[in-house]
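Board notes (copied after class):
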Amino acid sequence: MRGGKKTIARAFAAAAAVLAAAVLLTGCKSGKTESGSSKSGEEQIFLTAPHRGKIQLEFAPKTSIFRGGMADNFTVEHHKGQVSFCALGDNLIHDGIFTYALNALGGDFNYLYEAVRDYVQSADIAILNHETMLVADPGQIGGYPAFGTPLGVGDAVFNAGFDVVSCATNHCMDRGGYAANVTRQFYRDRGIACIGIQAYDEPDYIPYWIVERNGLRIAFLNYTYGTNGYPIPDDFPNMVHTLDSEWQVRSDIQAACADSDLQVMCVHMGNEYDFEPNDYQNYWMQVFMEEGVDVVIGSHPHVLQPYGVLQGPNGRQMLVYYSLGNFISCQIPEECKIGGMALFTVSVDGRGVHFNYDRMKTRTVQEGLFYHTILSET
């Protein structure tokens, strides 16, 4: 939600959260608890760190139910110290998508987000993984493997009501610094937090973006594992935020913790088409956990991966969506047509940080030359 309170026609449907007692934390928070639908808590993730040995992170059991709102006429109340989020997966604009919109719809891309518009606009903060960069030059428009996305997509993102776009992806340098610069300036000029990349007029490093909602300062950070071999401009080394330096990432999180009430990490990593996280993802989850990140939203695998609250040493908790898959694309495998829409609420009080969360599914549908996304139960 950009700006003030919204009028809501359809939103999150949530049962009352049961909040557990505060727990002792490491990092920059005093305590965290969580709530949600029942789960055995038996799923475990084992992380191996070269200098720390083997530690254990497990999914904490949920204690009450929270379901993404399919119900009509439900009103979300906006409380101080509580922020509702809606996050969507990869916005992967292949040839089939932009060709249809440019030729058949006069360049109108608003249909891309129609199915989720109510959820996007009723959330306090809506996040989209902006996999491919915008280009103003029609000659730079292109699909896989070197994407260049028409500005009309950016207009549609703005019109839908997104507040944050994560742009540090493996495709952010497909059209060089030109497209990253266009993308950052386009969204910055429209008041949308464009994270993970910087423009030519921003030579100094900007590690995070602060969004203020309901009395809380939320810091958004974004990194990618790489850029498909395309170089980051030598004279603008801060243009793309990468995971190349663990020290830098840790320092950025520490600075964000000191400057905000909540920290949201959008991270682009993992094996494409794998349904389970790999060691690289798990290692970074350990880093994020140690430094005090509250929420992690993952992208890149193009398929859904596990989600839940990870619990580490000393009761430290972190809400994690390992991968939300694709929101829109022309990828052919069925598993790549299914995406996730993360719906969660984070509240802060004297006892700590509390989570209420779920994930709905989206599906990309092809009708002739027309690709669009619907909400899906499967």
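Comment from the instructor: The chain has a mean pLDDT of 84. The CA atoms of residues 47 and 340 lie 25 Å apart.
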